[in-house]
Specification:
Helix 3 (91-103) runs parallel beside helix 4 (118-128) and helix 3 crosses helix 12. This protein has helices at 2-59, 68-80, 91-103, 118-128, 142-151, 163-169, 183-191, 202-205, 208-215, 234-239, 254-258, 262-280; strands at 82-86, 108-112, 133-137, 155-157, 175-177, 179-180, 196-199, 222-226, 244-247. With 282 residues, the protein is α/β, with parallel strands linked by helices.
Length: 282
């Protein structure tokens, strides 16, 4: 009789254990289903947002602390979407062409080292337009970098990575934008402290498609596209991941420069500024 009761108790105990196990399994399944359901309903919208927001957020977080002056220059470059690149055969023409472009809306201007009297032109423009982001381009020597800084340059740009300049500006008030062509060069520039890297010569490397390809492994690197870019392609470059584009002949048309046709430069600057603003705010 006692054995029978013991057997029944064992059977009941086993049944209870089986039910408890089933309940636990069901609870785990429900939990997993809830997780999957939550992910499936939110993933499409969150991924859509993060694909752009995450890249922008990561770009805005530099490797090292940035001075307020450098941070302001970076913001001006990214907010404009356009860096006007000026080269002229005389200081007088350069000054007139620069003022025409500025009147057309340009807020970030680079004067190339080969322009005669480049530092004097820069000094005059800094005096007349103190709030602008004015810089010097194709800087290859540390001596020229120091002179440009003394003349009031807010940024310096090179077609390659010039280590002496990179080291000199670290932790200072000047933004240095080195040039890079390959993924290895881009990463080297970024690791060395570059806050923005110029992709040069971008048109020869595939244009905005090359920028799009580079942004996949380097979403955290801010890139400025340079060389051979036209005004009507600004939107594509910005959309594919460029923080800004460098426009040279597209604004400072060679024929207009040679004929001192500053009205044409003004109109080209207007068009570039409009498309740049539209692309950045899209």
């Amino acid at each position: 009789m006692q054995n029978t009761r013991s057997g029944r108790t064992t059977i009941i105990s086993l049944q209870l254990q089986t039910m408890a196990s089933a309940t636990t399994t069901l609870t785990l399944c429900q939990y997993q289903l809830q997780r999957l359901w939550s992910f499936s309903t939110s993933s499409s919208s969150s991924l859509r947002l993060s694909s752009r927001v995450t890249c922008r957020a990561s770009e805005s977080q530099p490797q090292l602390s940035v001075s307020p002056t450098v941070d302001k220059t970076i913001c001006q470059i990214k907010n404009s979407g356009v860096i006007a690149c000026l080269r002229a055969n005389s200081a007088e023409v350069a000054l007139e062409a620069a003022n025409a472009a500025i009147a057309g809306g340009i807020s970030v201007l680079e004067i190339v080292m080969s322009t005669p009297g480049v530092f004097e032109v820069l000094q005059q423009l800094v005096k007349e337009h103190p709030g602008m982001a004015l810089g010097v381009g194709t800087v290859l020597r540390i001596e020229d970098a120091k002179t440009a800084i003394d003349a009031g340059a807010k940024f310096l740009m090179s077609p390659a990575i010039v280590k002496d300049i990179m080291d000199y500006v670290q932790g200072g008030e000047i933004l240095y934008i080195p040039g890079a062509m390959t993924p290895t060069e881009i990463l080297s520039a970024y690791d060395a402290g570059a806050k923005i890297v110029k992709i040069y010569p971008v048109s020869a490397l595939g244009g905005f498609q090359y920028i799009a390809a580079l942004k996949k492994p380097f979403p955290h690197v801010s890139m400025v596209a340079s060389q051979g870019i036209t005004i009507d392609s600004i939107g594509e470059y910005i959309m594919r991941g460029a923080s800004s584009v460098v426009l040279s002949d597209a604004i400072f048309d060679k024929e207009a420069i040679s004929q001192c046709n500053f009205s044409k430069i003004y109109k080209l600057a207007q068009s570039a500024t409009l498309l740049g603003n539209q692309a950045v705010n899209r």
